[in-house]
Design a protein that fits this description.
The chain is α/β, with parallel strands linked by helices. Helices cover 42% and strands 18% of the residues.
Length: 286
C-alpha cells in the first residue's frame, strides 16, 4: 500500500486526485485529519495496519518567512517528523520513499541550479528541509528519491503563495505587497507537471536507483514584475505597494532540469500566463 503524508495540502490534494483517476490505491496521513507526523506511535499503527510498502512524504510546514516566526514548530515537524517517517520506513521494510524537499536548500546559489550545487540554505525553513534530506540519505531504506520542487503554482494553491496572497489582499480592498523592486526571478513549476512526474517515479522507476535527487522546476523563468503585469492587465485598478525585500528572501531561484529531463522525461510546457489568468478570473468570480 502507498502512504501519502500531507495528502490534503496543495500538492498533496492534486496528487491524490491523480492517483484516484489512475485507480492507484493509497492512504492519506494528514494533519488536517488529526494525523501528525510527530506522533510516532500513531504512525506506527498506520504502517502496521495498512502494510505500507511505498511512501510519498509531502507533510511539512512550508514558507520561508513563517519558518523564522515559528522555529520550534518548523523544526519539530520538518526534522523530527521526517525522522519518524524514515524510522517507520526502515521498521516495515518499505521499498521506496519519495521525499519532497524544497529549492530553499540551495540558498543564494546562482541559477540555473543543478543537483550538483552545494546546498547552503539562508532560512530556517531551508535548513529544516536540508536536514530532512540528510536523514533520508543516511537511511537504510531500499530506494529513496528526493524531489526538489522549485516555485509551485496552480489552482487551489496555498493562501500564503504570492498569487493567492495578492488575490486575498485585493478582495479585502488592500494594495498587493511586492517585496523588492520586482526584478526577483522564479522558475515556476505547474503542479500537474510535478504530480505526474512523482507518479511516474513510483510507477516506472521502481528499483532503478538506490539514492537519487531531482530538481523539478518549470520551463519558464518569471520575474515578480511579470506577475504584477498579469494582475494589472486583468485588474487595471489594482494598487501595488512595494516593500523592502526580507533578508531571507532569495533574489533568483530557478532550476537546471537536464537530469530530470534525461532520466524522467521531464519537459514541462510553457503555460504560466495562461494558468495564472485562469486562476485570477476564477477566484474573482467566486
Amino acid at each position: 500500500m502507498l502512504l501519502i503524508t500531507g495528502g490534503s495540502g496543495f500538492v498533496g490534494s492534486h496528487l491524490t486526485t491523480a492517483l484516484e483517476k489512475k485507480k492507484i490505491d493509497y492512504v492519506n496521513y494528514d494533519l488536517l485529519e488529526g494525523n501528525d507526523i510527530r506522533d510516532l506511535c500513531k504512525l506506527d499503527t498506520y504502517f502496521e495496519k495498512y502494510q505500507i510498502t511505498e511512501v510519498i512524504h509531502l507533510a511539512a510546514l512550508a514558507g520561508v518567512r513563517r519558518g523564522n516566526e515559528y522555529p520550534q514548530d518548523y523544526i519539530s515537524t520538518n526534522i523530527l517528523g521526517t525522522y519518524n517517517i524514515v524510522k517507520m520506513c526502515e521498521k516495515y521494510n518499505v521499498d521506496h520513499l519519495v521525499f519532497y524537499s524544497s529549492s530553499s536548500v540551495y540558498g543564494n546559489s546562482k541559477p540555473p541550479i543543478d543537483e550538483s550545487y552545494t546546498k547552503k540554505p539562508i532560512s530556517l525553513y531551508g535548513t529544516t528541509k536540508l536536514s530532512g534530506e540528510r536523514i533520508v540519505e543516511a537511511s537504510e531504506i531500499q530506494q529513496t528519491t528526493i524531489v526538489i520542487p522549485f516555485t509551485v503554482y496552480g489552482p487551489e494553491g496555498r493562501k500564503d503563495e504570492v498569487i493567492y496572497k495578492w488575490l486575498e489582499q485585493h478582495k479585502n480592498h488592500k494594495p498587493i505587497t511586492v517585496f523588492g523592486d520586482g526584478s526577483s526571478k522564479r522558475g515556476y513549476v505547474y503542479v500537474k507537471d510535478l504530480v505526474d512526474t512523482t507518479i511516474k517515479i513510483i510507477e516506472e522507476h521502481r528499483g532503478d536507483w538506490k539514492r537519487e535527487t531531482f530538481n523539478l522546476g518549470g520551463s519558464e523563468v518569471i520575474t515578480l514584475h511579470d506577475l504584477v503585469a498579469i494582475f494589472i492587465e486583468l485588474i487595471p485598478k489594482i494598487q501595488v505597494d512595494y516593500m523592502d525585500m526580507p533578508k531571507t528572501d532569495i533574489k533568483e531561484n530557478f532550476a537546471d532540469t537536464s537530469k530530470a529531463g534525461k532520466k524522467l522525461s521531464f519537459y514541462p510546457e510553457k503555460r504560466f500566463e495562461e494558468v495564472v489568468k485562469k486562476i485570477i478570473k476564477t477566484e474573482l468570480n467566486n
